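Good morning C.,

I know you're traveling, so I'll keep this short. The sequence:
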Amino acid sequence: MCALKLWNISRYYISEAIKSGNVTFAIYGLGGVGLALVAVWLRAGAKVIGVDLNRDKVEALNRGEVSHPEEKVRKAITDALKHDRFVATTNGVRAAKMADVMIVIVPLTYRKDGPDFSNIDHAFDQISQGLSKGDIVILETSVPPGTTEYRVRNILDEKSGLIAGIDYGLIYSPERVMIGHAVEDIEEKYPKIVSGIDEKSTEIAEAIYSTIAKAGVIRVSSPIVAEFEKLAEGIYRDINIALANELARLARKLNIDFNEVIKAANSQPYSHIHKPGTGVGGLCIPIYPKLLSWTAENLGIRLELTSLARTINEFQPRFVISLVHEGLNLININRGKVKVAILGLAFRGDTPVTSNTPTYVILKGLLESGIKNIVVHDPFVATDPVLATMNIKLMSDLKDALLKSNIVVIVTDHSIYRDLSTLDIITMSGADKIAIIDGRHVIELKDAGGRVLYTGVGRPWIKI
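The tokens, ready to paste straight into the viewer:
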């Protein structure tokens, strides 16, 4: 793969160089977002090296086995393999030596005492060993403010002997995607936020991302601003979801439907009340408040509202568990005899991602309460090691999952569940009576002859 150092050419020619296939990108981290980035740069015309520590994943990709829910991603990678424009490797040092632009999108996890930077440190340690003058290095992982300018810059400068802003470009540009339509998010939907550690890095960042972002590029004054901005996006959603969850509980006590409240309230242009749910999952929204709170606490500040919202949302799966027990009492079935069907393992609808899914918390709580006969249905998740440790069966056939169920809990808003009605569910169950907890307010309420007791997170119990 031929090298073209973007640091050394006019920013006005950068887009043309990428589209002509003269620029090689190395993408570090081949998860859902990483593979979407691979696909986007391949679609733009670049050559791409994918880097991941998982040897099985790397070998599968090189065989053309692309595990990703988006057809655009699968097609871009398989097509590129045929034309020698893509290769996957576990050797991050060699990838850095071969690439002109290195993008890091490895996961950042959070432990009890703070963020775990080990994945990021390892990726940049590898890059530092293959870094050359003229290279461009970009971080896209969501990180605490200051990570790029201090932690990443120190690793690269100290271990490579080069100087950021003089010998190579260093940029922060947060990913802003949802798996399932990530390619569309990057290429069409959202502006790209960019900032470099110096003016030249920022200019190059704008030129690079202008190649792919039809919605435009927004330059901010420093990587710290860009890092803060990304976390603020997620915290905004977390706080508003917490508000919705809290108000929904009150609506139930008032014996009203919170959906009606939302519809009326949001007719006012300054009201944007979110829908309540079963909890907040994924690798983003549950983590961002902790990252920013950790940053704040290191500066002697406590983010009160941010922390409270996180507490409310972390409790939400346990609120769903309480609804299950209410349902048991209402239909008068013993915990030892009931069969509970959980619809949805993924944390979000129409994706296979189970990271931090509220379903795990719900299942654990039900098991601890003495309910043992539990099955989980998910059309997108084939196997799950967590369920295996719980001795809970994961099913792909909805009818089999619902058969003889007395309690049905809809946890995830998969499209397949939107086609269900209360009558459909009791018919597939075959039970004389059933309690349905619709945690996403997705199913149709259809007369079932009074055999169904139905509730939602923001709805009272009703007989249907």
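Safe travels,
E.
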